[in-house]
Amino acid sequence: MPHTIFLDDINQHLVSLTDFRRNAGRYVDKLPQQGPLTILRGSKVVAHLIPPVEKKSTMSVEERIKKVRELAGGFRYKIELTPKQLNEEYDKMYDEMLPR
Description:
With 100 residues, this protein is an alpha+beta fold. Helix content is 48%, strand content 15%. It starts with 6 loop residues before the first helix and ends with a helix.
């Protein structure tokens, strides 16, 4: 019976689990340049490591700064309560929910 090699398998780097345990740091360091890594236990695949994907922001620098400033100011729900008053309200709600 002929052995079939899939195109996806050609680009895979196969590593035994034992070798990965002993040299994990080296493999992780090489991951961005080397590409995906497949870890095997015996002859079975137990894990795939892939390099991180750089996510490009769709927002401009000014939009991101504006968003950070909004979040840094906290969330405003137009509640005019002090933290102590807010805790008391939560305690009342909690007491009402408890079965008696």
